[in-house]
């Protein structure tokens, strides 16, 4: 399906002119806030962020968005005003984003600080790096990362809080953790059908948090 096709009705928007009739051009302050290098305020934000979303695409345009999390101060390393590095930690070994970077280096990252509605966005070109001297400084518990995603910053800017305000994401009264099945049920239904719920509840229980760094 392309942007000119929809089986659900509605009028397709297929040109920039049509789009701008619906969504006017941004205000000058928004249009001109993109910068090519990190400011000291960006460095402070990166140092305080424990969560990042990394968007990548392969050579054919197939997309992936992967969350990265670490204690604040260990999630990302600022190498200079135009370069940052995000360490790799033990995971499911799919390496979807890394495989994409090998085919297409363009990446987009959003850095989140819990409780804050605004975010920091970084766009650039990435590479995979091993044996970097700074990796030892990103140790968490006993885990020293063996791989990092180095990003040459091309665009950096702060994004306003409207999405988080609309979603009320940081308001505990809106949290619906019990409105969907627990992780063990999802895993047994979709992924690990041969395991029992008891086994999966034990796997995803308190012990899971103790093993996330290997």
UniProtKB/TrEMBL annotation:
<dbReference type="InterPro" id="IPR012349">
    <property type="entry name" value="Split_barrel_FMN-bd"/>
</dbReference>
<feature type="domain" description="Pyridoxamine 5'-phosphate oxidase N-terminal">
    <location>
        <begin position="43"/>
        <end position="160"/>
    </location>
</feature>
<protein>
    <submittedName>
        <fullName>Pyridoxamine 5'-phosphate oxidase family protein</fullName>
    </submittedName>
</protein>
<dbReference type="InterPro" id="IPR011576">
    <property type="entry name" value="Pyridox_Oxase_N"/>
</dbReference>
<dbReference type="InterPro" id="IPR024029">
    <property type="entry name" value="Pyridox_Oxase_FMN-dep"/>
</dbReference>
<dbReference type="Pfam" id="PF01243">
    <property type="entry name" value="PNPOx_N"/>
</dbReference>
């Amino acid at each position: 399906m392309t942007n000119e096709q929809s089986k659900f009705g509605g009028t397709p928007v297929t040109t920039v002119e049509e789009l701008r009739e619906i969504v006017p051009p941004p205000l000058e302050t928004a249009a001109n806030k993109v910068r090519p290098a990190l400011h000291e305020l960006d460095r402070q934000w990166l140092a305080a962020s424990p969560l990042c979303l990394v968007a990548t695409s392969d050579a054919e345009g197939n997309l992936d968005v992967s969350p990265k999390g670490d204690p604040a101060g260990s999630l990302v390393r600022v190498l200079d005003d135009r370069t940052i590095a995000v360490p790799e930690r033990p995971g499911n070994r799919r390496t979807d984003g890394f495989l994409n970077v090998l085919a297409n280096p363009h990446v987009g990252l959003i850095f989140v600080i819990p409780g804050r509605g605004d975010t920091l966005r970084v766009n650039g070109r990435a590479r995979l790096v091993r044996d970097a001297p700074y990796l030892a400084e990103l140790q968490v518990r006993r885990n020293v990362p063996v791989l990092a995603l180095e990003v040459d910053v091309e665009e950096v800017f702060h994004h306003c809080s409207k999405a988080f305000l609309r979603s009320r994401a940081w308001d505990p009264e809106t949290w619906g953790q019990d409105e969907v099945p627990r992780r063990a049920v999802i895993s047994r239904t979709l992924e690990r059908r041969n395991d029992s719920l008891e086994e999966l509840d034990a796997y995803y229980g308190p012990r899971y948090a103790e093993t996330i760094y290997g």
